[in-house]
């Protein structure tokens, strides 16, 4: 892909404005985008092709070696045109980023997204909508509510009274879940803070973000009670609930370390008793 074709330099008039008056220009071009969507996606695709065609198709470097490589890249693109810089940087990133789609990437319990996810990311990034008002994200708001209603139904709640949002990552979800529970049981906490010795019960296999959330909320890790739900009897569980001022019971469905599923019978019994 030639630089001049992929990233044309716009001709400017004396005032620095583009001379192009094509009525078919996209709104983003009129707002000042230098490059078209076709040019940007073309650059990305070429970067991926460059990676796939490179020897070994895997370039994992030590921190110090990668730092030297990046310094060399910065020095090499200083005198290039903007379009050439974008191509070089894109190729560099595609070459040295960790390829989580590689079948040999086994160090974590996640992997690279499906190619279809790329289309979703492009739509989200291009339109840059938000969830704060319907007028800024009409289609995504309707879609999100429909999916949430399905999930709420699976959990046995009434879609007329229950709601939710999708958040970027499990740790953030856990934090928001704890905050929501606190504000539901202690609505005055928004203004006056929360009293000490409020307990949260979680699994011994719970995600580390539960402890981090306790710290961020000012509740303290000593007020987090970790239990082994597989070994705990119903009577023991009820005793713990009676002896402590429990704000919330956090279940773990698919542990981070092993991907195992825990026995949730005690939690189901608790939920049925509170209905």
Beta-strand fraction estimate? 5-15%
Count all strands and give the number. 3
Largest sheet: 3 strands, parallel
How many helices in DSSP terms?
12
Mass-distribution shape: elongated
Oligomer: single chain
End-to-end CA span:
64 Å
Helix content: 40-55%
Sketch the topology as an H/E string, one letter per element: HHHHHHHHHEHEHEH
The whole-angstrom Rg is 26 Å
Topology (elements, then pairings):
Blueprint: H1 3-6, H2 27-30, H3 37-53, H4 63-76, H5 82-96, H6 115-127, H7 138-154, H8 170-185, H9 189-192, E1 199-203, H10 208-216, E2 224-227, H11 234-243, E3 246-250, H12 265-274
Parallel strand pairs: 1-2, 1-3
Q: Briefly, what is this?
A:
The chain is mostly helical.
Can you walk me through this structure?
With 275 residues, the protein is mainly alpha-helical. Helix content is 48%, strand content 5%. The chain contains twelve helices and three strands. It has helices spanning 3-6, 27-30, 37-53, 63-76, 82-96, 115-127, 138-154, 170-185, 189-192, 208-216, 234-243, 265-274; strands at residues 199-203, 224-227, 246-250. Strands 2-1-3 form a three-stranded parallel beta sheet. The radius of gyration is 26 Å and the shape is elongated.
């Amino acid at each position: 892909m030639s630089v001049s074709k992929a990233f044309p330099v716009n001709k400017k008039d004396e005032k620095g404005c583009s001379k192009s008056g094509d009525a078919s220009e996209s709104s983003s071009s009129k707002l000042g985008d230098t490059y078209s969507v076709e040019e940007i996606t073309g650059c990305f695709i070429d970067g991926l092709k460059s990676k796939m065609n490179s020897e070994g198709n895997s370039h994992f470097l030590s921190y110090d070696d990668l730092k030297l490589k990046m310094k060399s890249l910065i020095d090499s693109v200083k005198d290039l045109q903007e379009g050439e810089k974008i191509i070089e940087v894109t190729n560099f990133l595609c070459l040295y980023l960790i390829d989580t789609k590689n079948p040999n990437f086994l160090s974590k319990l996640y992997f690279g997204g499906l190619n279809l996810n790329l289309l979703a990311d492009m739509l989200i990034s291009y339109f840059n909508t938000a969830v704060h008002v319907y007028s800024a994200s009409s289609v995504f708001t309707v879609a999100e509510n429909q999916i949430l209603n399905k999930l709420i139904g699976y959990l046995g709640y009434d879609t007329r009274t229950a709601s939710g949002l999708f958040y970027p990552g499990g740790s953030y979800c856990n934090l928001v879940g704890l905050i929501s529970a606190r504000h539901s049981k202690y609505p005055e906490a928004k203004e006056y803070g929360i009293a000490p010795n409020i307990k949260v019960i979680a699994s011994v296999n719970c995600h580390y973000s539960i402890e981090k959330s306790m710290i961020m909320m000012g509740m303290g890790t000593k007020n987090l009670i970790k239990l082994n739900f597989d070994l705990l009897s119903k009577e023991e569980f009820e005793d713990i609930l009676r002896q402590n001022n429990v704000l919330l019971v956090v279940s773990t469905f698919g542990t981070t370390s092993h991907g195992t599923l825990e026995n949730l019978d005690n939690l189901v019994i608790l939920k049925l008793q509170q209905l």
